[in-house]
Specification:
Number of strands: 13
Strand content: 25-35%
Strand order of the largest sheet: 3-4-5-11-10-9-8
Distance between the termini: 16 Å
Order of helices and strands: HHHHEEEEEEEHEEEEHEE
Radius of gyration: 22 Å
Shape: elongated
Number of helices: 6
Structural class: alpha+beta
Helix content: 25-40%
Length: 237
């Protein structure tokens, strides 16, 4: 996406930059981290700069108002947005945040849009009350070339035991174990799993407070899949 069609930083440029952030970065719920608050504030800043320069453009009034309310804004610009009839349709947060596909080190996984997230050089972690997911991934190889998924699982998944669950989807192979963990003092459900294709392997750890979420945990592990290009970004589904 290229929001800058002209050399000048004009209203259309500012609006397009805001739209790109709304499409790819904004989570349509109350921000759960400083990074999410900074993204939301940047979108509001861009929209607020664009409107006085050219009020005739097609502004996303409903989404602008929702974002302002999520940030608790009550300035003159927000009141102008509230006065627009098209801004008063039901907000998208009324039906829940849209799913988001996260991309990490060559792997992708769809998660609820309500998840907050953190990234390090090694892991992606996301979650909300009662559910967390952590993913780590790496390229795999041997002296003779890319490692097969069978060889990767033979190295990392033996600790899951002989009754480990198996998953196969084309070239992708996986192993996982469902147990519980009480090390924090409160027992929670735990899924530990691995997935692999030739040349790439991933580990996933899922915790859940509600015992009925065991099926969600299994479906999430099975949905972890390789992507093309190995990018490490997030995008809306």
């Amino acid at each position: 996406m290229t929001p800058w069609w002209a050399d000048a930083i004009d209203a259309r440029n500012l609006l397009n930059r805001a739209l790109c952030l709304m499409w790819t970065e904004v989570r349509w719920r109350a921000p759960a981290s400083d990074a999410e608050r900074r993204v939301n504030d940047e979108v509001l800043r861009l929209l607020g700069r664009a409107f006085p320069l050219d009020p005739s453009l097609a502004y996303p009034w409903r989404d602008w108002l929702e974002l302002a309310r999520l940030r608790g804004s009550d300035d003159a610009m927000t009141r102008q947005v509230e006065a627009r009839p098209s801004a008063l349709r039901p907000p998208r947060s009324a039906t829940g945040a849209s799913p988001v596909t996260i991309l990490h080190e060559g792997w992708e996984l769809e998660v609820p849009g309500s998840f907050s997230e953190e990234r390090t050089a090694d892991e992606w972690t996301g979650g909300e009350s009662g559910r967390t997911i952590t993913i780590a991934a790496t390229e795999t190889g041997t002296a003779t070339g890319p490692m097969s998924p069978q060889a990767f699982l033979a190295q990392v998944a033996t600790g899951l035991g002989t009754e480990a669950l198996a998953h196969e989807d084309g070239e992708l192979l996986g192993r996982a174990r469902l147990t519980s963990d009480a090390t924090s003092g409160v027992e929670v459900g735990l899924l530990e799993g691995y997935s692999a294709v030739r040349g790439r392997g991933a580990a996933i750890r899922i915790t859940f407070d509600d015992s009925a979420d065991w099926r969600w945990a299994l479906d999430t592990w099975r949905a972890l899949a390789p992507i093309r290009g190995g990018t490490s970004l997030a995008r809306a589904s």
